[in-house]
Amino acid sequence: xxxxxxxxxxxxxxxxxxxxxxxLAVPIVRGEGSWLIAEDGTRxxxxxxxxxxxxxxxxxxxxxARVSEQLRTLEHVLFxxxxxxxxxxxxxxxxxxxxxxxARVFYSDNGSTAVEVALKMVLQYFHNLGQPxxxxxxxxxxxxxxxxxxxxxxxxxxxxxxxxWPLLFDVEFIDVPVPGxxxxxxxxxxxxxxxxxxxxxxFEPLVLGTAGMVxxxxxxxxxMLRRCHQCGVLCIADEVMTGFGRTGPLFASSLLQEQPDxxxxxxxxxxxxxxxxxxxxxxxxxxxxxxxxxMRALFHGHSYTANPVACAAALASLExxxxxxxxxxxxxxxxxxAAFRQEIEALPGIRQVRHRGTILAVxxxxxxxxxxxxxxxxxxxxxxxxxxxxxxxxxxxxxLLPPYCTTNPELELLYAVLRRMREVVLxxxxxxxxxxxxxx
Length: 440
Description:
Layout: H1 4-11, E1 28-32, E2 35-38, E3 43-46, H2 49-52, H3 61-71, H4 85-97, E4 102-108, H5 111-128, E5 136-140, H6 149-153, E6 172-174, H7 182-193, E7 198-203, E8 207-208, E9 214-215, H8 218-230, E10 234-238, E11 262-265, E12 277-282, H9 283-287, H10 308-321, H11 324-344, E13 350-356, E14 359-364, H12 374-386, E15 389-390, E16 397-400, H13 408-426
Parallel strand pairs: 3-15, 5-6, 5-7, 7-10, 10-11
Antiparallel strand pairs: 1-2, 2-3, 4-12, 8-9, 11-12, 13-14, 14-16
């Protein structure tokens, strides 16, 4: 009788996967806290929150109970012309804790579509104001905002998007203002802000995820937003990854003195339970769509917009996230990461260690010209899997982004594998003919 992995291989097409050469998928049948349990009983420690979505641990009983209750009450209702308690309560609670300028919540169903909504808000905002020439976005080099067409357009041009380049709208890329390079980025921004076609600036606040957890400081981002606002340019914070405590505070934007006009959320929104996305905006943006003319409305929607079950999961997850216990968990992980960083960052084979909140990224140094070879990434991935740990390296960068329930002994298991990866790097044999691994 075929295994679950074999059955999967016969009928399923997996994301970011060359199906002809990839090994069989690991068959997971159950989750428990920070652990994933395979069909044969093998336990895997989830060091990346299953693609950054899980906040409080797998199969969390509080979220499960709320989802079960909602399923027995109302599973779904169309959200055009109708509403329901969970959607209203979630919007109310989010607006209580988001930056105070955020005034409205627009529901969608994943991170990419949350970004699509934000882009359409900006473009139609200027169209409704009689400024249709403002249609160009400013983005960071190596940024990633999703895989739908608008989200791809405001993301880095790389190998994964190359087949679609002719179909992506033009944007302006500027350098990430990493420490020591802030002045160069501000100068690039100033040059662009003088143009009449600039509409928006979209960014991953403080941490660029798929770029390799590249980090920069809130002070320079605050200054960038201030300069954008002086020129009437709208600012979009893509908090799909950074939201709900990943960077320390509940939102990375909370560390800014100048606030974005629009914010995008998904991933941890439901605690990793169900797919959901939402986009929030400031009152002036919403007001630009109000009119007796129905054509000024935002014509965007999804069949599962504001799904009641997903909203119930988000409410339950938010309830947990706002507890003192969750804050203490995040602070404990942050302290453990800081201690490990101090231990490892000066050792041979380490290029840089980056850390903010519960996110830790180790950039290994295998030598010039080999930093992003897929061969090294695959070696890291396999080493982790052999040690029953789930990681998803980004070239020569290996990051940890664990669920908040991850204990100190479990964190030490993750750190032990990162130490062993340094041994892999020190013995790494360059293969310069291999293609570069651009992003994951």
